[in-house]
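Chapter summary example.
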Amino acid sequence: MKHTAKAQSLQLRQFRDTGTLYLSAPEAAELIRRLGLPHCLTHMAEHIRADFLRWADFDKSARVAAHSKDGVIELMPVADDHRYSFKYVNGHPGNTHFGLSTVMAFGVLADVDTGAPLFLSELTLTTALRTAAMSALAAQTLARPDSRVMALIGNGAQSEFQAIAFQHLVGIEELRVYDVDPTASAKLVANLQGSGLQITVCQSTAEAVRGADIVTTVTADKAMALILTPEMIQPGMHLNAVGGDCPGKTELHGDILDAAKVFVEYEPQSRIEGEIQHQPADFAVTELWQVLRGESAGRDNAQQVTVFDSVGFALEDFSALRFMMDSAVRLGMGERIALIPQLADPKNLFGLLAAPASVSERLTQIATTAHA
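The structure predicted for these 372 residues follows.
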């Protein structure tokens, strides 16, 4: 799914002629509505898989984070030989008290050869899709193929996307949901009406997990929490740990990790931010790309407990931006903006400050008339 040289040349020519393609949050939502959420999740997962399969092509680094007592602001860059991307994203659990989203994001896809910013997009909604698509891709790879029941612990902004992704990409038919805030679970149930999922609202994490094949934890509190404890875990479960995504924030008891086979996105980042942040430096993990490429084994047997320690990695945003840009161009969506000056003489940036000739001439005319 690598960009062809022809497509890359066209994108650069469009930028030079008309500017950066900008996809706003309302337009991103409309794009997803037009294509359908299951379609977008499926194709975003395919883009992620394709990019993970060429893992060695990318210049990778852990995200740069600025932590505060209330949250974190992060910059997530990655590049191959043709395209560079970054995402600006925050995580502030208390934001809902101010009428703001816990997570807010935007990102850029740029041309490596020239540095031209080809695509500027909202990534708040898109991040929700790419996180769910990544979770489902990991579960396709690691969970038992007969998994049909999922416990969903944490029913906030990410929860519906996880549910739909697991329904359409993994085959989940039944959801057992729990949140410390009952209104969050009620919101999830209302939003998923007509989805075809059988949903049971539970009164505790333990009740929700009981009988589940897959357990997804996607809680928001910035705390060293123990959402899942060893007595809740049954042989053969796949645990999709999404919420533990910064230093000092976890969801799983350490003994669960010790007894499971653990998979991560990018180990250097996961050692700092993931569920494994307090495990010894030699604690064994496998990066998911190795399983996708057939270089390492995934689940060893039907009784094994597998954990996907998901913290979110920049390559997934690269994939998501590729999908959103290609879709926007195909649907004729977004607008071209002059994010970068268009100069008649690229060496004369100062000339941009000169008044346009028509305005200058008009001012001269006014001055001449005033002195007449």
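To summarize the output: The longest helix spans residues 124-142.
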